[in-house]
Specification:
With 45 residues, the protein is mostly helical. It has one domain. The chain contains 1 helix and no strands. The protein has one helix at 3-44. The longest helix is centred in the middle third of the chain and has 42 residues, at 3-44. It starts with a helix and ends with a helix.
């Protein structure tokens, strides 16, 4: 393998990891918002 190819694969792997981390963050934020809405609804009742 050439060093250019290895560097390209490393960049691709880093991008894939970054995207998967963002997906987990968005999913977690959605759960937090859902929990907050549920808490507000419980308080109103």
């Amino acid at each position: 393998m050439t060093s250019t190819r290895i560097a390209s694969l490393a960049v691709l792997l880093a991008c894939a990891l970054a995207v998967s981390a963002c997906a987990n963050t968005v999913r977690g934020a959605g759960k937090d918002i859902k929990g907050t809405v549920q808490a507000v609804e419980d308080t109103v009742e």
